[in-house]
Write a structure and sequence with these properties.
Layout lengths: L12 H4 L4 H13 L4 H8 L11 H20 L9 H12 L1 H11 L15 H22 L14 H8 L9
Helix pairs in contact: 2-4, 3-5, 4-5
């Protein structure tokens, strides 16, 4: 089995404008740290299932820390697809639903709107393969930017193409056997 080249090679030196990957991330992370995410935080912790998810304060604060990393990576490296985990995606949706705040936050951090493709990996078999590659890219980028493994309960770690096929079996990708 040949080892695939690092997906981080998608980051061109010219796009970094003289910065290292770590410096680029740090610059965007500083901007992300300034975001006021109190409203989506409050909403996901709400105990009423018609309003929120009833997440504990401890869990929500851990997720919020990781969401800021995700948001900064998404802003800093638009050439790399960064699929969110389910809980990251749920928080991202709550952020996006406050459209004015989300738009302003995107402008503050990235200078552009940060789009979300919620169906990535589920559209066809090729898409599933691309999503698995993107998940591995995301892990490598996290390691490079943060210097440690992402928490497995908040990020998708060690996902394989077979896992993706099982996840979407019967919905979008026909699974044999």
């Amino acid at each position: 089995m040949t080892e695939e080249p690092s997906p981080l090679t998608k980051i061109s030196p010219s796009s970094l404008e003289g910065e290292t990957v770590e410096q680029r991330f740090a610059r965007y992370a500083l901007r992300t740290a300034e975001l006021d995410l109190a409203n989506p935080r409050r909403k996901v912790m709400h105990p009423n299932p018609n309003i929120g998810y009833g997440w504990s304060e401890e869990f929500t604060d851990r997720l919020l820390k990781e969401y800021r990393i995700f948001f900064a990576m998404h802003a800093a490296f638009p050439e790399i697809w960064l699929p969110p985990s389910r809980v990251m995606d749920l928080f991202w949706h709550e952020h996006i639903l406050d459209t004015r705040a989300y738009f302003a936050d995107c402008q503050q951090v990235a200078g552009r709107y940060l789009h979300h493709l919620p169906y990535f990996g589920m559209r066809n078999p090729e898409d599933a393969s691309l999503c698995v590659a993107a998940l591995n890219s995301e892990r490598q980028l996290y390691l490079r930017c943060v210097g440690k493994e992402p928490p497995e309960d908040l990020w998708i770690v060690g996902f394989r193409e077979d896992d993706m096929r099982k996840l979407v079996a019967g919905r979008f990708i026909p699974v044999e056997g």
